[in-house]
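Priority: medium. Attachment 1 of 2:
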């Protein structure tokens, strides 16, 4: 690359990075506020909260990279125009088309980065965030259960424990009243107990060790049995109504989306949401190339409004691009 190309790229990078920081911060703040408050209220450790909040960044980056590119082009070229550097370039025989070389390099890099974020990073980060959210919800029982206080959040189950160790890992002295079966209510007494979560099968159980099982039937017969270990299965659909659902379109790669489209078409179902997601994964990276052309066309003028005018123009163009793209599928 020639000196003039490197010079133009150096002028572009600072406003692009600044715009990326500002736009990403603005887009991610509402989500951070919503999810962070929920996690903190459930007693989640700061490390897990920070990890979950970082997983929200790729979703915002997929939108803010093209925005930042357009803003950076407008601000950088407005500065070059106001300082009459474009006049000097033209006096040296350099046309506006010649500036497409450095602008094209930056636009292609931004398009590639946006496509990688949309196609690879966003599906994985979204799914990982959903897994963390599910784990937090599923483990809330261990956070809410207190020693010598009846816990009745489980439908038709009452749980009482004598001691909750500060180190975690379960409870000591467990009493459970199980009235889910009206014909055969049961009572469990155990020395130790804990919550067992099978995330693969989304199964939640209370594991009791070294105890007795008391039950009676409709005939009035009373039975007592001892056990070394027993599992009391809970229904996650009623205990944890927000349990993690299957992957949605935003958590799938392009290849997985195409496979789902083919499967839905075979079943006679409409795959419009999956098709929209596939096209969005391509259209937003291509926006970097479109914004590159728009930015150089609007920025390389002799306007006197300066950086604030470029910022306002950039916002108008961004809204004109993104609003129809999201409003159309909603309609």
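Attachment 2 of 2:
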């Amino acid at each position: 690359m020639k000196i003039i190309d490197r010079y133009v790229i150096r002028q572009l990078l600072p406003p692009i990075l600044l715009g990326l920081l500002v736009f990403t911060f603005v887009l991610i703040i509402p989500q951070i506020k919503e999810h962070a408050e929920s996690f903190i209220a459930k007693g989640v450790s700061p490390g897990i909260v920070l990890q979950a909040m970082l997983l929200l960044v790729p979703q915002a980056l997929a939108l803010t990279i093209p925005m930042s590119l357009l803003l950076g082009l407008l601000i950088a070229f407005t500065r070059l125009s106001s300082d009459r550097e474009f006049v000097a370039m033209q006096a040296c025989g350099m046309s506006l088309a010649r500036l497409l070389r450095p602008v094209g390099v930056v636009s292609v890099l931004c398009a590639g980065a946006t496509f990688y974020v949309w196609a690879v990073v966003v599906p994985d980060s979204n799914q990982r965030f959903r897994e963390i959210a599910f784990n937090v919800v599923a483990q809330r029982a261990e956070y809410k259960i207190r020693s010598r206080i009846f816990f009745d959040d489980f439908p038709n189950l009452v749980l009482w424990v004598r001691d909750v160790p500060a180190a975690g890992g379960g409870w000591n002295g467990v009493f459970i009243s199980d009235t889910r079966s009206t014909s055969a209510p049961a009572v469990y007494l155990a020395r130790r107990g804990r919550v067992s979560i099978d995330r693969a099968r989304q199964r939640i159980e209370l594991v009791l060790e070294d105890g007795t099982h008391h039950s009676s039937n409709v005939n009035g017969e009373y039975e007592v049995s001892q056990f070394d270990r027993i599992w009391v299965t809970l229904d996650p659909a009623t205990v944890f109504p927000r349990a993690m659902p299957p992957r949605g379109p935003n958590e799938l790669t392009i290849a997985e989306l195409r496979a789902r489209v083919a499967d839905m078409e075979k079943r006679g179902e409409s795959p419009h949401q999956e098709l929209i997601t596939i096209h969005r994964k391509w259209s937003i990276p291509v926006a970097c190339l479109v914004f590159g052309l728009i930015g150089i066309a609007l920025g390389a003028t002799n306007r006197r409004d300066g950086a604030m005018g470029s910022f306002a123009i950039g916002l108008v163009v961004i809204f004109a691009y993104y609003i129809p793209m999201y409003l159309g599928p909603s309609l």
